[in-house]
Structures
1.
Amino acid sequence: MHTTTTDDTPAAVRIRGLRKVYGGAVAVDGIDLDIARGETFALLGPNGAGKSTTIEILEGYRLRTSGEVSVLGVDPAHGGLDWKGRLGIVLQSAAESGLYTVREQLAHFAKLYPSPRDVDEVIAAVGLESKAGTRIGRLSGGQRRRVDVALGIIGRPELLFLDEPTTGFDPEARREFWSLIRTLKDEGTTILLTTHYLDEAAQLGDRAGVILGGRLVDVGTVEELGGAEARVPIVRWRDPDGGPREVRTARPAELVASLVARLGGEPAGLEVIRPSLEDIYLQLVRAAGVDALDIEEAAA
Ligand SMILES: Nc1ncnc2c1ncn2[C@@H]1O[C@H](COP(=O)(O)OP(=O)(O)OP(=O)(O)O)[C@@H](O)[C@H]1O
């Protein structure tokens, strides 16, 4: 039977004052966060920001230095097998055996859970039907990543951790993966996702948080992140002398109408841009002074 939640904790994840220090280096520096049951939360941040460390503490893979953490009502540092069976985990890099076929590996893991999904359904959901009988060691990088995702969902988890799940996916596979995640959401699965693909966060996340230097610098719905100011549209055009112009205005239509009147016709190179989540994220990262290499990697 599917494990029902008997604890009375309203949040799936509750984090207070979380810190992790490796040697002398602070990787996570006082994070507070609640993730509601059934919510999909996207954790964003450049390389080395502390996302994986945070997630791995929640999964029970790493011990925290200090702070309070509760995952499905349990402290992950003391989570037993029952608790682990309620989680689905897709690590950043997985180490599944290359010797087994996709179907064998999934069938093996399915046996470890009280109420697993059907192996062939999961294989189809991650788009590996044609590779079900192939040894994992002979799959491409993106196909192996799909096996990781399949292993993460085979146990019908209440809470699914996805650490950069679509790295290496081709664009079509990413869209198929998004539709799989929407199905899991509809079934009530709580999902904590890290990703460097901002469109993925915008597509899937009910809320998102940005971690910089181990601190959560902003949390909000995907529509709210960065604040209203960051979302003001940008109007760009070229003046008759060729000079580029750019104005941010909440009333772009008014500005364009006045430009048309002033220039006596269509402004050259006219663009009205509404900042995307990626633009807003990059503004946040730049404002925090994170170096350019990390920004480029994060946006890549
Ligand atoms: N086992 C470890 N020992 C020492 N330092 C570590 C260890 N794991 C991570 N760190 C350091 O902690 C910081 C946060 O790393 P973490 O892997 O959590 O970042 P991240 O946000 O997941 O990055 P990425 O996007 O590259 O996966 C980094 O400075 C990293 O070098």
2.
Amino acid sequence: MSFLAIDIGNTRLKWAVYPHGAEPGSQPLQHGAVFLENIDRLADEDWQGLAPPERVLGSNVAGDAVRRRVEEQMEHWDLTPRWVVPSPEAAGVRNGYDHPTRLGADRWVAVIGARAHARKRGFDGPVLIVMVGTAVTVDALSADAQFLGGLILPGHGIMLRALEGGTSGLRVPTGEVRDFPTNTSDALTTGGTFAITGAIERMHRLLTQREGRSPMLLMTGGAGWKVAPAVDVPHELVEGLIFDGLLAVDAARG
Ligand SMILES: Nc1ncnc2c1ncn2[C@@H]1O[C@H](COP(=O)(O)OP(=O)(O)O)[C@@H](O)[C@H]1O
Ligand SMILES: CC(C)(COP(=O)(O)O)[C@@H](O)C(=O)NCCC(=O)O
Ligand SMILES: [K+]
């Protein structure tokens, strides 16, 4: 008896299997990640030796066509996968988005996972949730469990491709993050990193002002580890934040 959690982003599908009744923060029994171009081989490769899960809950921001392709890979299991649709309220968190269903499912699930993570640590203040994937999102959760809103900015790859495509002199190798970059490679790498960390620090300040207390800052996503060293407020990298959120949503639904 197991639970399969799936997180489909715009670059990769991440999955994790948990024992029945696992709580947010638990270690998965098995986990993996595949680029979207390889999802049609999940049944034959990554999931080939997997015991059929009892239930599947996913978050998907890559569109309906991708979701259907993933569902095809589960057809040999006797179950109906479920997908999170952001709602006005779930697992004790209220959704402050103007149109709750238009919020990215990954953002909603990560906010829910972040609250579970903070509570487990005995922290009852606000939380700032940063996901560094294809895009970057910086989302604010109040101490009283209201998702206040958050921002979306391009990830490093998209920023670089936009600059390469829109100019003639910016096609250079990856550089280093430097305080005062003195070559094009370092200028681009530092620009991308500071755009992200600057947005994080600004939201951190805004949330601190609003809540009268410093938030817990949680970072996740495939490129979170690259950005985290440049963030100059206390933070924690939580690799499985979306999986924790999926476990919390599943538990709340019963
Ligand atoms: N081993 C890796 N494989 C793929 N992407 C990686 C890897 N390490 C870091 N990254 C970075 O992470 C980003 C993808 O992160 P991910 O969380 O999978 O995104 P998404 O949720 O949007 O699919 C890529 O843009 C890339 O910059
Ligand atoms: C912002 C996102 C593109 C992030 O996607 P990702 O980087 O995880 O692939 C995704 O959460 C999304 O499509 N959101 C819908 C729009 C919104 O949240 O307002
Ligand atoms: K993501």
